[in-house]
Fold this protein.
Amino acid sequence: MKPSILVLGSVWSNDVREQITQAFDCHFMAAIPQAGEPAFDAIAHGIRGVLTTGTVGVTPALVASLPALDIVTVHGVGVDAVPLALLAEKGIHVTNTPDVLTDDVADFAVTLLLSTVRRLPLLDRHVRTGGWAAKAPMAHMQARALKGKVAGIVGFGRIGQAVAGRLQGFGLQIRYYQRSPGPAPEQRSDSLLALAQESDMLVLCMPGGADTEGMIDQAIIEALGPEGTLINIARGTVVDEAALVTALQDGRLGAAGLDVFEHEPQVPDALLALDNVVLTPHVGSFTFEARRAMGQLAVDNLRAHFAGKPLPTPVG
Ligand code: 8YV
């Protein structure tokens, strides 16, 4: 009999769908089901694995309602939406999909940085709405050069380092901060506040979760300052979103490029109304290649688990 798995979220490429439906008895659900939903209650007792996304994750309540659960496979590198301590306590395995998305996420961080600094959406709108043809004023869209400026990377893991490597090519000086020591200690700032003070732009690449929640607060935002740019490709939870919005509104922060938000897919109306932000719908890893490789790695982890083989990419 094929093992039963619950597949949460809706980002599965066709080839991954094909593979999992062949190998497992799959129950697809767009969001986390609640105990008491008849369709879920009917299958819950037999579910042995959950395949979920980095943002949907699993909740303690879901874990409690799956008595036969022994693996949670995250289609994503971030495991902040998964209660790791609880799963470890119950002996439930967790896997994620590191490395295969690093380059594409780093490319996207650079794309968002360039689009924000060079005001790409405004310029595009200017052409489309006839502003250029009508010789409408453009002074508010003039950008500052990157070369010679300082890019501060927060979180200098695989993705942070890949972003840094790319930004060096633009003539930016790289500094970084993370709590643990990292490579190139001479580039590491003494504190997050020091990094924000030293940088013209901050690129957030740290993991989400309790340890980093609200780390980018009003003091950090103000230290980055009126000429500063904040780029977030990490998690919405790492930023105090309310403080960010007011700083952008009254010019205490120059601009922001945001791919992630506190309550996705909800984006505060106040952000939508601002011209000094570039907003994207959590798409850092959204290339055919990365998503295919992430899906394949997720499937490989599930297959290995149910075949009693070592997991390719276990977490912890
Ligand atoms: C995905 C992500 O959007 O890897 C992560 O942690 O946030 C993203 O790559 C998501 O997990 C897709 O399933």
User: Anything to note?
Assistant: Residues 4-99+289-306 form a domain with the Rossmann fold fold (CATH 3.40.50.720). Residues 11, 53-55, 75-78, 101, 282, 284-285 surround 2-keto-D-gluconic acid (CB under 6 Å). The chain has a mean pLDDT of 97. The first strand starts at residue 4 and ends at 8.
